[in-house]
Amino acid sequence: MSDAARATAPRIALVGNPNSGKTALFNALTGARQKVANYPGVTVERKAGTVTTPAGHKALILDLPGTYSLRARSPDEAVTRDVVLGRFPGEEPPDVIACVADATNLRLVLRLALELKQVGRPLLLVLNMFDIAERQGIRIDLDGLSRALNVPVVTTVAVRKRGLDALLRKLDELSAQGVHGATAWREPSAAEIRAAHRDSERIMREFVKPPLRPDTWTGRLDSVLLHPVAGTLILLVILFLMFQAVFSWATPVMDLIDAGFTWLGTLVAEYLPDGLLRSFIADGLIAGVGSVVVFLPQIMVLFFFIILLEDFGYMARAAFLMDRLMGAAGLHGRAFIPLLSSFACAIPGIMAARVIDNKRDRLTTILVAPLTTCSARIPVYTLIISAFIPQKLVWGFANLQGLVMFGLYATGIISALLVAFVIRKILWRSASEPFLIELPSYKVPDVTNVLRGVWQRGKIFLRRAGTIIFSLMVVVWFLSSFPGAPEGATGPAIDYSFAGMLGHLIHPLLAPIGFTWQMAVALVPGIAAREVAVGALGTVYAIGGQVGTGTLGAALAASWPLATALSFLTWYVFAPQCLSTLAVVKRETNGWLWPSVMFTYMITLAYIASFIVYHVASALFG
Amino acid sequence: MRLSELGIGDRGVVIGITPGAVTDEAAIDHAELERRLLEMGFVEGARFQVLHEGLIGRDPIAIRLDDMRVALRRREARAVTVDCTAMDMAAQ
């Protein structure tokens, strides 16, 4: 194909093993000119960017999910296979496939390169992290390797932006050649995989000499970090520091965002005439979006640590250390990261479940993720605990309020593990997916790549806040505002709205667990997001004429028995009081089935647990 | 001998993949397990050494496999037949 005849920009697909530095290469090539979106119909991220080649073409670079083989095992890997083969609907086949390899770890990727050759499109082998290979004294006969594979070979150091020009020139040459021939690829059999291994083994022996100065750091670090006792303790310390950071670093920024949205709300209230429009903008739009955006700092701090540890090579070790514990609950070692993320917010947790290959393991993780104590529960917990639990020492050292808080967190974790166990026993009775992962060599993380990753996570979260979550907030505002209170009404306006009607309607159902009708009314807007219930309780009790000058906590303490408060806390441990989570589950599982399952089991669990707590507490405390 | 029976420090050579040895119910069939092990580098002739064991039940295990590191459960390690005596010969 001549340059003039080229109708579209050349498309380059980056394919490689996990931990090959593929994403660092993608970042080095495209810089800020990249777009992260979802492939239509599946929840796999499509990372695309552009770069201008020496020949003046504006090439499109696709960063495909890492894989060991084109034989797809997870939704991520299926995308890689389908895009490479040109089978993905709506995605043009790539003009050139660039197989990205960690130059220090070539054995498995050579087999992948042999598999990619069968695809029949121009192929280029990129030996990335070549500086590390040189430092270790690995001698690679580049010409020999290129001849043996019959594929051009270039070397790069993505994080130092070295070798990129040579890579782009080769891409120009290859994309000008056009397609070689038809795809000969099909799923290899075990015998074919063995044969390909023998070929790559032979090529390795002939053209790659083992390191003169092998990396000894990975072994030394592992002897501590993977030590059964010391390693587990270090993991706990890392988690502890991570949570400290999530909650302490993020708080000032969260307060700032909160203040910003409040200020915006009052500004609108000042300049717009009292009425529907003002209520919609101030209470619906600004308050609604604000209540979600306020979690952005926590999510970014959390992902900063996750991406940092991932790039360092530690996450595979964390999965190794936690595998047996997670395995006892029927979960995969990799479920550890999604569940960890869920402590900030279930939404990034559910999104992070994409790293799990097996569909059932992934679904189990998604279903239990909302049981871990997300930060939206904290406002509810602190309100109720400070109002009802006395500030006193127990057992001589423990603060009772702190102890209750800890108990709520522990209940969340234990119930998540128990539910996972039950799901595995009831829903799919099969044994678990094999745990088989590579433990990559440790590498110093590249700051730019880490920050870029954090930035992208933040953008994805905001995009969700701006679409699904935003529209749900509008619906909740509508339910809480219409119809308005009649002339001369004495109760709070929400009492006359659809939300109020719904609250009164469901109150008989909630009475057996000790809830007042005001609580039932507050639960309706509270379904949008957990912390919204605090504001809603404020509205119901404040305008309900039951609050004098005291705080909401004091008002609650005056009107609820202790059993009701404990029942309410229990409800918040289990109840699916977060429409955004359900919406994200719908998106991630492509249908209403799993969000419905999640809603049903969580609300059943919440009701039963609250019922027991209410009646036991009533009997104990009167 | 099977990889699942070894402890820290044991070394040897992979002599075969026998997924039929994993008898309890699994999420994937034997042919798939064999292919996944092969893709991870468990091929006949690959040299290995057991490096680490997990805290509970000494499971999972981390091994050096040729020039990379791999972790797996003892359950799947049953499918890897190994020879620990051939090590000296292979090392030459």
What would your notes on this structure say?
Chain A has 622 residues and is an alpha/beta fold. Chain A folds into three domains: 11-215, Rossmann fold, CATH 3.40.50.300; 230-248 and 295-431, no CATH class; 461-621, no CATH class. Chain A contains 26 helices and twelve strands. In chain A, the strands form three sheets. A seven-stranded mixed beta sheet of chain A has the order 2-3-4-1-5-6-8, sandwiched between helices. A two-stranded antiparallel ribbon of chain A has the order 7-9. Chain A has a two-stranded antiparallel ribbon with strand order 10-11. In chain A, strand 2 and strand 3 (45-52) form a beta hairpin. With 92 residues, chain B is of the alpha+beta class. Chain B has a single domain (3-91), classed as SH3 type barrels (Roll), CATH 2.30.30. In chain B, 21% of the residues lie in helices and 30% in strands. The two termini of chain B are 22 Å apart. Classes of the chains: A alpha/beta (622), B alpha+beta (92). Chain A binds chain B through residues 68-69, 71, 73, 105, 107-108, 111, 188-190, 193-194, 197-198, 201, 210, 218-219, 222, 226-229, 232, 316, 319-321, 323-325, 327, 333, 358, 360-361, 429-441, and chain B through 17, 24-28, 31, 33-41, 43-45, 51-57, 59-60, 62, 66-73, 75-76. Strand 12 of chain A pairs antiparallel with strand 4 (68-72) of chain B.
